[in-house]
Amino acid sequence: MDTLHAIGFYVSAAVLLAGALAVAFLSSRGGRGLGLAVVGLGLAGVYVSLSAGFVALVALVAYAVIAVLVARPDYRNLPMLVTSDWRQAGAVGATILLVALAYAAYNGDFAHATFYGGPFNSVAVGRLLFTHDALATEAMGLVALAALVGSAVVWRRDRREERARESGAREPRSRTR
Q: Which residue of 49, 94, 126, 148 could cross-link 8, Cys pair, CB 3.0 to 4.6 Å?
């Protein structure tokens, strides 16, 4: 990586980190939405510095949409479904995973993939992911699937409770009339 690409990578990584800290520490919805937009901008910059322009464009659009959704006034937080013991176990597991990933990053060689040209070449990114990081790609796919299924379950349960409250609230009013 030449000097210009390295500078772009580290500046983009700093922007991404600043946005992530804003999401973590700001309390207002608008601030968190802006933080997510900054995270998307930083992530897109990292991808562009790694010559993955198509992925950068997808990340930028996805984070912009997520930022708008979070900043909306009708956005609501999901209730915690687990106890503090499970959250602590998850934090310990995440710490162990972070240490393992840091060990692998500092003691391993970087993967060398053939670049087939152009800043919007998703083929090179796909080849790199599936030749060197197939297990990590599958793991991220499973994490995304679990998050989608969990969100759908929570949404359906909340929706069912809202309908039950609405139908329960309507019945007494009709009986009093």
A: 49
- Per the model's pLDDT, the better-predicted residue between 72 and 111 turns out to be 72
What pTM was estimated for this model as a whole? 0.50
Angle between helices 53-71 and 29-49 (to 10 degrees): 180
94-119 as b/e, with b when 16 or more CB fall inside 10 Å? Answer: eeeeeeeeeeeeeeeeeeeeeeeeee
- Give residue-wise pLDDT tens across range 152-164: 887 788 778 888 8
Q: In whole angstroms, what is the distance from residue 64 CA to residue 174 CA? A: 45
CA angle (130, 59, 68) in 5-degree steps: 150
Which distant-in-sequence residues (6+ apart) come within 8 Å of 132 by Cβ?
Answer: 111, 113
The phi and psi torsions of 160 (rounded to 5 degrees) equal -65, -40
Residue 51 and residue 35: Cα distance in Å, rounded? Answer: 24
CA–CA separation, 160 and 158 (whole Å):
5
Q: With contact defined as beta carbons under 8 Å apart, do 44 and 67 qualify?
A: no
Asked if residue 131 lies in contact with residue 114, where contact means CB atoms within 8 angstroms, the answer is no
Going by the DSSP 8-state scheme, the letter that residue 50 receives in this structure is: T
Q: Rg of the chain over CA atoms, in angstroms? A: 21
